[in-house]
Design goal:
Oligomer: heterotrimer
Strand order of the largest sheet of chain C: 3-8-7
Distance between the termini of chain A: 24 Å
Chains: A mainly beta (117), B mainly beta (29), C alpha+beta (155)
Structural class of chain A: mainly beta
Distance between the termini of chain C: 33 Å
Shape of chain C: globular
Order of helices and strands of chain C: HEEEEHEEEE
Number of helices of chain C: 2
């Protein structure tokens, strides 16, 4: 099963025992999943089951070199979709994609990679 | 002085900085 | 020998009449003593905004694009004190600040503070920073000591 990685994360983040939720209170930083893809077209879904007051997140695809102490999409190694205002980010540039998403929404995240890795 | 930034604020001790959600974005939307 | 927390509490109000800032022809500005300080005494805290270290280069770029001199001091691998927009006179102490003073990160009631201590007795009127070692701060002097934790620049 795809889970949140225990060690591939910013040191100020805490992963829950079931490894499906992450909490942090030192500003925006990142945790990667336990599985990665290298070529072909891949798709995964996330359901927002809870959203504490004022909590926001950025979800998407991040490469091994993405800076863990910054939000996903801050550098050129990540693409993210933000819950606040539904903005998508890459290299710290935001572009409007959709209205914001919140608790109860199901997000689909797809990536196309070249076949020849 | 040039040494003091515009609207420099004198502090007696450290203050924690509350990071904004858009802190790392090139321009906040 | 008071415990650190008590000495720190006294520091906040004693700093103002201990440390003054003067305009120095060499490095623009430096600190001097307004009253005699005993060896080992707390002189001033390097006060400022405590930010995550991953924010430093973004802020440095921001300040230099606005021509604002950037003053930061690293607490540990995770946090830096940014004294550029909010801080105190200690920001003019370059990271060496010897031979009269030395800097220490002190944990007081669970919070880390960068405190400048007097290395020896410093007389009234004497400067606190080693002012004449470095020319104007703008041009950095590369450090070739090769030490693991070297900060690459002498000033």
């Amino acid at each position: 099963a795809v889970l949140l990685a225990l060690h591939d994360r910013a040191q100020c983040l805490r992963i829950s025992d079931d490894r499906l939720s992450v909490t942090g209170d030192k500003g925006y930083c990142m945790v990667r999943a336990t599985h990665c893809v290298r070529r072909g077209t891949w798709y995964w879904e996330a359901t927002i089951t809870a959203q504490p007051e004022g909590a926001h997140c950025r979800i998407g695809w991040g490469g091994p070199l993405a800076n863990l102490n910054a939000p996903l999409g801050y550098d050129k190694f990540g693409y993210s979709w933000r819950s606040r205002k539904g903005t998508v980010f890459h290299e710290a540039r935001g572009r409007h994609l959709s209205p914001g998403y919140q608790q109860g929404d199901v997000l689909g995240i797809l990536i196309h990679l070249p076949e020849a890795a | 002085w040039s040494a003091f930034a515009p609207d420099f604020k004198e502090l007696d001790e450290n203050v924690e900085y509350e990071e904004r959600e858009s802190e790392f974005d090139l321009s906040d939307e | 020998e008071l415990p650190m927390a008590m000495r720190y509490r006294q520091l906040c109000d004693s700093t103002r009449d201990t440390v003054g800032v003067y305009r120095s022809p060499i490095s623009g500005r430096g600190l001097f003593c307004k009253r005699t300080v005993e060896a080992g005494q707390m002189v001033i805290e390097y006060a400022g905004q405590v930010i995550r270290s991953s924010l430093t280069d973004i802020r440095e770029r921001y300040y230099s694009s606005r021509g604002i001199g950037c003053y930061m001091f690293r607490i540990d691998d995770d946090f830096v004190v940014d004294a550029t927009m909010k801080g105190n006179a200690a920001r003019f102490i370059n990271h060496s600040c010897n031979p009269n003073c030395y800097s220490r990160v002190v944990d007081i009631l669970g919070k880390k503070h960068i405190i400048i201590f007097a290395l020896r007795k410093i007389l009234r009127g004497e400067e606190l920073t080693y002012d004449y070692k470095f020319p104007i701060e703008e041009d950095k002097i590369p450090c070739t000591c090769g030490a693991r934790r070297c900060r690459k620049y002498l000033n």
